[in-house]
Amino acid sequence: MAAASAALAAPRGANGGANTGGCGGTRPEHLALKLAPCAQAVEDPNATPSGSCCAAVRDIWKRQTPDCLCAMILSDTVKHAGIKVEVAITIPKRCNIASRPVGYKCGEYTLPSMQN
């Protein structure tokens, strides 16, 4: 879990540190600080994300594009920490965020529907 927390605390942009990855003027690693409460949900695909995790995801979701969330979870730091993107990408579904763009491609991963 420490690796997940560290990765969520400081991921780099999907193409390097200076990339804003669709996050406007904000670097993905700065936004990722808000996702630290999701560390357990990233490790366990069966875990119910905490209320603070879901609140953080909803807040970022309202303010940023799906490309920004992809930049955070596809970052080199997250990959090196061993976080499974296929688990991380399910957090919006597990948080019951109805406004998420179902079927949105995030690299080779697809945002799941409620039925998936």
From TrEMBL:
It comes from the Eukaryota. GO terms for biological process: systemic acquired resistance. GO terms for molecular function: fatty acid binding. Pfam families: LTP_2. Residues 21-102 form the Bifunctional inhibitor/plant lipid transfer protein/seed storage helical domain. InterPro entries: Bifun_inhib/LTP/seed_sf (IPR036312), Bifunc_inhib/LTP/seed_store (IPR016140), DIR1-like (IPR039265). SUPFAM superfamilies: Bifunctional inhibitor/lipid-transfer protein/seed storage 2S albumin. This is Bifunctional inhibitor/plant lipid transfer protein/seed storage helical domain-containing protein. It comes from Eleusine coracana subsp. coracana. The gene is gb15721.
